[in-house]
Fold:
Amino acid sequence: MHVFNLEKEQEWDLKKHVEKILGREAEGDFTVACWEPGQISPYHCHPEATEIYFCFSGGGKMHTPQGSVDVVPGSFVVHPRGELHEFENGPQRTLLFRVRYGDSMATRHIGWRGHPERGMSEEDKAYFAANPPGITFNPHGVSR
Structure:
């Protein structure tokens, strides 16, 4: 059994969101994710893992190729293996609880609006060349 108090596990950074791994089990991990106002995650996927976010406080928007949803306290979002997604924090601090499980926790980034100076790695380029996303999120609408 693992027991945590999310309020006591919080860590904040004005330069980037903080994902603090609280523990691991055989096929996954569980994390507290702390977001300052306006912070944006990379637009990414986990090819071999499902990712679940539960909003404890604050909120923002979760973007996928299919559209965007509001994330508010009490809501949770499930991203199946390989689904591209981006979290855009709202105007206040947000505390999320995250669970990932699957064969690998590897992440593949296709872009990062919050840090456009950070390009794709060679591994990311190779992954998306072999697995074209088809429909990608564009902050101004969905594009093909």
The chain has two helices and ten strands. Helices lie at 6-9, 122-130. Strands lie at 18-25, 28-35, 43-45, 49-57, 60-64, 67-71, 76-79, 86-89, 94-102, 108-111.
